[in-house]
Amino acid sequence: MFRTTRITGHPSLPTTFRRGAAGLLAAALLGTAVTGCGSDQATDAAGTDDGLTTITLASSPLGHLAPIYLAEDKGIFARHGLKVEVDTETSDLTSVPSVLAGKVDFATGDLTTLIVARTQGLDVKAVVPASASTGKAGADYGALVVAADSGITSPKQLEGKTVAVNILTNIAAAAAREAVRADGGDSESLKLVEIPFPQVPAAISEGRVAGAWVVEPFLSAAKAQGAVPIGWGFTDLAEDLTVSAWYTSGALVTRKPEVVTAFRTAIREAYAYAREHEDEVRAKIPTFTQITPEVAAKITITGWRDEVSRQAAEKLAGYARRDGLINTTPDLDELILP
User: Fold this and answer.
1) Residue 95: what pLDDT?
2) What residue spans of 81-124 are helical by DSSP H?
3) For the domain that residue 48 is a member of, what is the CATH number?
4) What is the residue range of 85's domain?
5) Residues 172, 320: one domain?
6) What percent of the chain has pLDDT over 90?
7) Model confidence band, residue 216 (pLDDT cutoffs 50, 70, 90)
8) Measured on CA atoms in the order 6, 221, 68, 251, is the torsion positive or negative?
9) Cβ partners under 8 Å of residue 328, min gap 6
10) Domain end: 186, 215, 237, which one?
11) Closest Cα partner for 289 from 126, 110, 43, 69?
């Protein structure tokens, strides 16, 4: 059985991007990780009466969870000795200390955040992709959008303007910047502000920002309110872009490697099923999100990949260093599970 809770909101307020954001991210990762390490609520992949090992997964309730739910329905996890519980209240940022403290066994985190965490000495291990670019400009699940009547038709025209991203220090900021760079613009001139994805359509339509980086289903919502895509930053970042990964702690990998292997194998089987049954994926999405069946039928679904792209990680580390999020490049062999 799944234990599912809904995300209730994002605490962030619009904040102009500064280099100091890197320090804030590092402080958040390190400080909450240290605080959480003393917790007595560790799950540590507990056993159950039916002989299955219960694992807790933390992720926002977005479309990339559909294969997970389908895998449970189809008995894929059970065939690998696993029983899954899903926590959708732990945010992507607070999931790092939660994983390190053993409160959850696996969580989704965007690859840039995991790179920063590794640079700060946090023992996170990327196990398998959670979401990936489709690799198709014009048909991806993330895009740089502007108001239809803005007169802006290309990313370069956003030079010096205010652009929204959901988090200043994650892959969304990198995607927005790279869309402008790829179009020959000065991405350093962008005035990035932090606005949660659900608030982006209103921010665009009300003219509070000139543009925004947004992903599905909020991309479809923004387009429904008149926004138009002008850039596809995921495809500009890397040809084979792992956007986010299911990750765990190095401690769990050491203590229970068989659980980590079983989880990765089950996820890959879930993706194989999802690739062949997209109609079931779309039908599942409204059952655990607030996305309607009508919207679920139209959104662009994330790509499903079996391997975390080393090439993408190298490029994202380079962008993070160039943008001041990190000072040194972490050992990616220590981050990405072989």
Assistant:
1) 87
2) 95-100, 111-119
3) 3.40.190.10
4) 20-133+240-335
5) no
6) 75
7) very high
8) negative
9) 119, 321
10) 237
11) 69
